[in-house]
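Session log. Operator J.P. requested a structure for one protein chain; no other inputs attached. Running the standard single-chain path with token output.
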Amino acid sequence: MKLSNFNFDLPKELLAEYPAPNRDEARLMVLNRKEKTIEHKMFKDLIDYFEEDDVLVLNNTKVFPARLFGNKEKTGARIEVFLLRELNPETRLWDVLVDPARKIRIGNKLYFGEDESLVAEVIDNTTSRGRTLRFLFDGSYEEFRKKLTELGETPLPKYIKRDVEPEDADRYQTIFAKEEGAVAAPTAGLHFSKHLLKRLEIKGINFAEITLHVGLGTFSPVEVEDLSKHKMDSEEIHIPDNTVSTINTGIQRKKRVCAVGTTVMRALESSVSSANTLNPYTGWTNKFIFPPYDFSIANCMVTNFHTPKSTLLMMVSAFAGHDFMKEAYEEAVKEKYRFFTYGDAMLIL
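Structure written below.
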């Protein structure tokens, strides 16, 4: 499989700028791999495809307000700082992206907030846009983190051209988000409402939670035609014992084990035993899934509609079958499904 196999024409107007008014009222395309059928539903109809003791696996990562705007010392130039990961809590070192990067050199200082109570010094260059910053703040670690949250804004993806609005703080977060650490939302999970989760629970569906802190690597463009040469960024994952037990029981009973999102699928496929069951795991994964690939854990998945040439599209293609996925995407464009982060959803059975 080559990069060019994953290109298609996506009209700009199909990139969703806003979410559906209600979480579970996004559209849902249902693909049946065995029957090769495509159905058009609403997301809340998802419940009709699951029976008692089936398992839905959710990513409980929580997005933190990772985008800050500061001013460069002396010139006062406005600089965007995107927090990627904390490197050292004690010395307040962070891995970040800066924009415009050409203006930011080692030794520069950036000032944040009206009162400039937060300052950062550039310690190192990591990539063309990547920098290591040391934050200087007069207060405890808890107060420092509170300050970051206060000054940061919801890190909507760059394709959304509008300003961040107050409702984004809620809608760019799943309702089951618990473990803070992601810089992008696990978007398939955004469609679940409290009401839908309750209905699934009453029907006897089991929930299992994993944590994968979504980094920007998920969205990094693939720049090599030969996919085997693409390197994924590492992301932190945690698969606890109780999740392993729920999922392995589902596998044993030949139930539906449904990965809600590509992040869940990556986490599950990163910790497979020789008997094709799940192992507990805490650590990092840089797993890149593209066709052909044999999946070991989940036998169905929920996912959004992805952009051309993205690693997410490649994983979905490996799961649905490349030709069937192409047919489904052509149908999605024709039927004007909404794509990407705030867009509609797909259930692949």
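Operator note: The first strand starts at residue 27 and ends at 32.
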